[in-house]
Design a protein that fits this description.
The complex is a heterodimer. Chain A is of the alpha+beta class. Chain A has two domains: about 1-45 and about 250-375, no CATH class; about 50-235, no CATH class. Chain A has helices spanning about 1-10, 15-45, 45-50, 75-80, 145-150, 190-200, 220-230, 235-250, 255-280, 285-295, 295-330, 345-370; strands at about 55-60, 85-95, 100, 105-110, 110-115, 125-130, 140-145, 160-165, 165-175, 185-190, 205-210, 230-235. Chain A is elongated. Chain A starts with a helix and ends in a 10-residue tail after the last helix. Chain B is an alpha/beta fold. Chain B has one domain (about 10-235): 3-Layer(aba) Sandwich (Rossmann fold). Chain B is about 30% helix and about 25% strand. Chain B is built from six helices and ten strands. Chain B has helices at about 55-60, 85-95, 110-120, 125-140, 155-165, 185-195; strands at about 10-20, 30-40, 45, 70-75, 75-80, 95-100, 170-175, 205-210, 220-225, 230-235. Chain B is globular and about 50 Å long. The chains are: A alpha+beta, B alpha/beta. The interface of A and B includes residues 9, 372 and 374 of A.
Chain lengths: ~375, ~240
Amino acid sequence: MNFVALRMLTGDRAKYLGLIFAIAFSTFLLQNQTSIFAGILARTGSQIADVTDAEVWVMDPATQYFEETKALKDTDLLRIRGVAGVDYAVRLFKGLPVARTPAGRFSQAVVMGLDDATLIGAPRKMLMGSWERLREPNSIVIDKAGYLLLFPDEPLELERTLEMNDHLVRIVGISDASAPFASFPIMHARYSEAVNFQGRERSQMAFVLVRPQAGITPKEMSQRIEAETGLRARTRDEFRWDCIRYYLKHTGIPVNFGITIAIALIVGLVVSGQTFYLFTVENLKQFGALKAIGVTNWRLMGMILLQALTVGFIGYALGTGMAAAFFEITAHKIATRGIVLLWQNVVGVGVLMFLVVIGASLLSIRRVLVLEPATVFRG
Amino acid sequence: MNTISPTDTLAVQCQDVHKHFGEGDGRVQVLRGVNFEVSQGKLTFLVGPSGCGKTTLISVIAGLLDTSGGDVHLFGNNTEKQAPNERIDFRRRNLGFVFQQYNLLPALTAAENAAVPLLAAGMKRREAVDRARALLVKLGLEQRMNAYPSKLSGGQQQRVALARALVHEPRLIVCDEPTAALDHATGEAVMELLASSAVHPERAVIVVTHDNRVYHFADAIAHMDDGRITHTEQRN
């Protein structure tokens, strides 16, 4: 009877396509919005993830997330180095100076000041030049997106100059840094130079980057530092999640995305449920005839579920294809780089859409189950 | 376990069958002690005015409705005592239906529609459709096997419905107003087909009808009024 169920389903083209469109649209919206949501939140900690030289980030206890920091004292660095198990600990500056091009374009930029001696925290994915050249005076490495923001429609070139806080700096490398939360250029410089790009402040050390000795886990290290210095120490992953949680708690991002996701779910459920129910109601005579002929309720239920799962699967596949195509296109755009269709979202939305089609078919199943087969004798 | 004895000559035996709908002030008594017998090998008409209980009676006989009292025996089996699934299984194997509005599945071709009872019994699609095709040839629809119901005339649709009722070789065929939606000539042709193809020594056919122009096909006519069989005429 499976083929009968499928032919009944595809027989009414308008409703069949309507069902598929509703589910595809709902799937696309859900995958699109949840992936963008996840991508944007991941950006809040992308500069943390880019630092692969240190597993523990130490900061002032008042610092809650990457974008807003309270400076540490210079003596804090020495205290951290004194904690047992620390392999190395280096300072990290983070500032937001304004960078200007000779042509007059300007933008606020995220400048990361790296330990002069070790350059720990330097970008490892370089597109042009070398991070080793940061040792040259007045040099910076800028990310590709930032370069294109400041020098639009121009080829990637080294030795271009920028002015920051009356300092002329040269671009000695172009990195492939992960996209930040705000669309600011990401620049790396030596600590001693970066502090001058920002302008004078009494203390400018935002973070201390720590690598534990072999055999000590980052978690263990961070606990030791906290216990011995009173500073806040977080592992890389913990700090990334701190940033994500901060944005979830203190911004309207989750509400805005939540509304769209809820609408996509409701539209998917209501439209597919209503269309599927109407489809069943219009076929009640046929279902009655099948019941009279001797098709059991279990079989009819199986037929309806097969119909629901078929449109659900096709709609989901189409919607996922649309979402994949969308992200394939946007992944190559500078502004939306790094925002991708996550497999977790594909699976999660798949489970949601499965529940939607099952929910949509429940009313139809109930209607058919309570149908008296004797109704077929009523003209 | 219900079995069918080929020696039983009575296909249907209703004894003091009552049926009501609703309770209290809304209670409607439709069948008031029906005694009715249908023999195998006969085409039995059930006739009577609208609202006299004909449709309810054939629904009860077909096991589509429960009785409120009395016994219904089909080929010696008391269907009232069958478990629900047993009754459905019995109906699938032993009954065929022809409905007034045909009730064909619009998304299936004529051959596929006729094959539905075989598919419901679990037969493979190809085998079921092949058997349905063979039957449709006998019923004169060899040119319309792959046509959808919407492309068939009323008479052709009723012939497909007849094929669907016959394809699994049931022992009782229940027809509800099979000519009501057809013009006289087409109705006559359908009845001729029904009489020639459905009636069989080991099969009974019950036809509910208002159409007195087709009474001449009947072997027996049971007259019904006010929820009872008033009398039965043996025609042949």
